[in-house]
Design a protein that fits this description.
The protein is of the alpha+beta class. It has seven helices and 20 strands. It has helices at 39-43, 46-56, 88-93, 148-153, 167-170, 178-182, 228-236, and strands at 2-6, 13-19, 25-29, 80-84, 103-107, 112-113, 119-121, 128-129, 132-138, 155-162, 165-166, 188-189, 195-196, 206-211, 214-220, 246-248, 269-274, 278-286, 292-298, 301-307. The strands form six sheets. Strands 5-4-16-9-10-13 form a six-stranded mixed beta sheet. A five-stranded mixed beta sheet has the order 7-18-17-14-15, with no helix packed on it. It has a three-stranded antiparallel beta sheet with strand order 1-2-3, with helices on one face. The longest helix is centred in the first third of the chain and has 11 residues, at 46-56. The chain is globular, with a radius of gyration of 20 Å.
């Protein structure tokens, strides 16, 4: 069972996709059960109700579903939590030692995009990068959890994610802050679908990425330093996770930051895939013009300098 949201941005409708015997897929509307795939739906046992309705044959067929835009499979999350350097090989190519505890950062919910939406390259960006990741979707409130078993019970399902990152903004340089490099518009494509946790072996999924058809990353979630339940448990010690929130669990080696590949440019096509969770495709374009504001000293005082790049 694959949960989707189909339609124009901001007007998506909930749906479920199931494979047909001939290799094609069939789509059914979830509107009899919910107006959207959101925290309230997940917290109320919506995935179980969807499975039961599907088995009972009570969901209406969604006609012409293949012609509709595919949105992120979860309606705008309240919080998107990023995990950094959660693969030892990626930490090494980034010039860091593997972390002893999870590295957390936050991304605004307005970074979430559909899996096939065109992706904007920031107007001043020269080091835009890709990151294929496994995404965790929270299904019940998680706060100060006592065990990883409790944490596992809070996971509704999993999605594929691409954590697009601007390295010059993120790392030492003109900006040099993780928040600046990780919070850009459209930088968190999710989907194409959400698969319930009981249908996924989250510790043994292949992750791959391509740029313009050329292979980049190829790894498995078995190489995660901190697995899904550990991450949910750890995050719950520092914040309250709510239904519909998303944790993206980190990326394996093979990104442009490694120096092995060029950074992304407008016109490039990025594809990422997580086994069983689908494949994304983003064509990049240059967003509107921008001006970088930098501080400089003038006559002993700090002044604001506008540097158009």
């Amino acid at each position: 069972m694959k949960i989707m949201r189909l339609g124009e941005a901001g007007k998506e409708q909930p749906a479920v996709m199931v494979p047909a015997g001939d290799g094609s897929s069939r789509y059914f509307s979830l509107l009899p059960l919910t107006r959207d795939v959101d925290g309230a739906f997940l917290a109320s046992g919506g995935l179980d109700r969807a499975r039961e309705a599907l088995a009972a044959g009570t969901l209406p067929v969604l006609e012409n579903a293949e012609t509709l835009r595919v949105g992120a499979p979860v309606a705008r999350p309240g919080t998107v939590v990023g995990i950094g350097m959660n693969y030892a090989a990626h930490a090494a190519e980034s010039g860091s030692a593997p972390p002893e505890i999870p590295v957390m950062f936050l991304k605004p919910s307005n970074t979430v995009a559909g899996p096939y939406d065109a992706a904007p390259v920031p107007p001043l960006s020269s080091k835009y990068d890709w990151e294929v990741e496994l995404g965790i979707v929270i299904g019940r409130e998680a706060s100060y959890l006592a065990t990883t078993d409790e944490a596992a019970a809070c996971i509704a399902g999993y999605v594929a994610a691409n954590d697009l990152s601007e390295r010059e903004y993120q790392l030492p340089g003109a900006a040099g802050q993780w928040t600046k490099g990780k919070t850009l518009p459209g930088s968190t494509p999710l989907g194409p679908w959400l698969v319930p946790a009981e249908d996924v072996d989250s510790g043994n999924l292949r992750l791959r990425s391509w740029v313009n058809g050329e292979p980049r990353q190829d790894s498995t979630t078995s190489e995660l330093i901190f697995d899904a339940a550990t991450l949910v448990h750890h995050c719950s010690q520092y914040m309250r996770l709510e239904p519909g929130d998303v944790i993206i669990t980190g990326t394996p080696e093979g990104v442009a930051l490694s120096g092995r590949f060029p950074y992304l440019q407008p016109g490039d096509v990025v594809e990422v895939e997580v086994e069983g969770l689908g494949r994304q495709r983003q064509e990049l374009y240059r967003a509107g013009s921008g001006v970088l504001a930098g501080l400089h000293r003038q006559d002993g005082a700090v002044g604001l300098q506008q540097d158009a790049l």
